[in-house]
# Entry
Amino acid sequence: MDDEQIICRVDITRIDNFQKIQMKDRIIDENILEIFINNTKAFEMVFSMTHAKALVAGFLFTQGIVHKKTEIEKIDLKINDAPKKDQKKVNSVKESYQCRVILNEKALKRLEAFKNQDQVKGSSGGTLLQGPAPGLPHCHTQGPTITYDQVLSLTQMHWDRSQLFHETGAVHSAGLCSPSDILFYYEDIGRHNALDKMAGDILLNTIDTRDKIATVSCRMSLEIIGKIIKTGIPIVISNAAPTLSAVRLALQAGLTVVGFARNNRFNIYTHGERILPGQPD
# Structure
């Protein structure tokens, strides 16, 4: 689904310098995604309607229910009652989104354990995570080096790619990058969803993350850093701040955390040996 299909034009009243102006504004849509696992409804989440299968796979992965791609035997997306594009209005029929997943026995057992245990919720609803997923490299044993210029360049590229944010002001984003370019880009109204879309794409497409960098648009809380660590990505760059608990977890896991990357400056919070003033190795 392209950006135009999740953006609506609506009539609004803008007050500018105490003057009333009638105009149209562009706002992003959202919907509920129902997740069925082995034909039983297991979860619901609110999401922006892109990368749905990656979102579900990434959610199952970062929550520790799925450890590797082969544990997902099948994943399909079903969309019902979709209006035609030229009928897309505020009062049009809402689509019904269902993602149906078949997991193997090992993953099903983890799903039952996940449902039965008390989950510690993070600052915006995410479940707190610890350590990398089985089979992924620990961050401190792998990873590229990048220069100051490359940090700032990736930050600018991320901003330039944020078209949905520029149009609506209502989405978070995550980029999967090489030191010199953004390779894949994910957006959602939820910052956790944006990270899970990236994690799911990594899982489903068996992307080697040992030489990759993540760029994110959100503050780096404990649960956000936990998701990055799960993917094995060794460097994360954000225009926002980390929390102290997130920095402590990143230190333990070997993750390089760069924050407040904006306006030709940034802060290095952990494992700064990967961030070099000159050319990378």
